[in-house]
Amino acid sequence: MNARHENYDQAELDKFGALASRWWDVDGPQRPLHALNPARLEYVRARARLDGADVLDVGCGGGLLSEAMARVGGKVTGIDLAEDLIKVARLHGLETGIQADYRVQSVEALAAERPASYDVVTCMEMLEHVPDPAAILQACATLLRPGGHLFVSTLNRTPAAFALAIVGAEYVARLLPRGTHRYESFIRPSELASWLREADLQLEDVSGLMYEPWRNAARLVRRTDVNYVAWARKPA
After folding, report:
1. Report field, pTM of the whole predicted structure over 0.85
2. What pLDDT is recorded for position 173?
3. Other C-beta atoms lying within 10 Å of the C-beta of residue 179
């Protein structure tokens, strides 16, 4: 693999690959991710047409969002560097009959191969797990057609995020495996906005995502101090 495509942390890939067998278990280690998925899909569908669109899900994991977008008519490609997760995504797609093209491939490599090929690109809960998130966003911009939409979600670097996403979720409530997140890798919205500008993308919106463990569900909110989702567009 070309060195410029090695924008990943092997320990992070191994960590999530170890969860592959229970990725689709709604009561398993990815329970909060299952809860976040409907809210993420709602956010995307409110801002971009998915039916008939060419859609790329970057860091697709076991295919939660990919399947959801394919179910509403998106022609979805899902990419991830964790091979075990791609296997799980493919197998689950065979079980459900919901079709998506899953690939073990980096977003930088795909950008070199297929520039300006997608109407919608999503990159959810991934940027905080890679060494160079700005490079990921640049590759996403390259993959978008003019006028295309980029959606990303991540965690804000605030005391509230540390308290809830790490101390609360990993150590107190044990909703996530310990070590899932590293606080220093969380991303402030101002940093994300700067990287989007560098990629010649226009930031249109930033909204909060609130996970409510007592009902195991999530909703979109105004507060962005913990989880947040952002929408950017490539100029037409």
Report:
1. yes
2. 56
3. 11
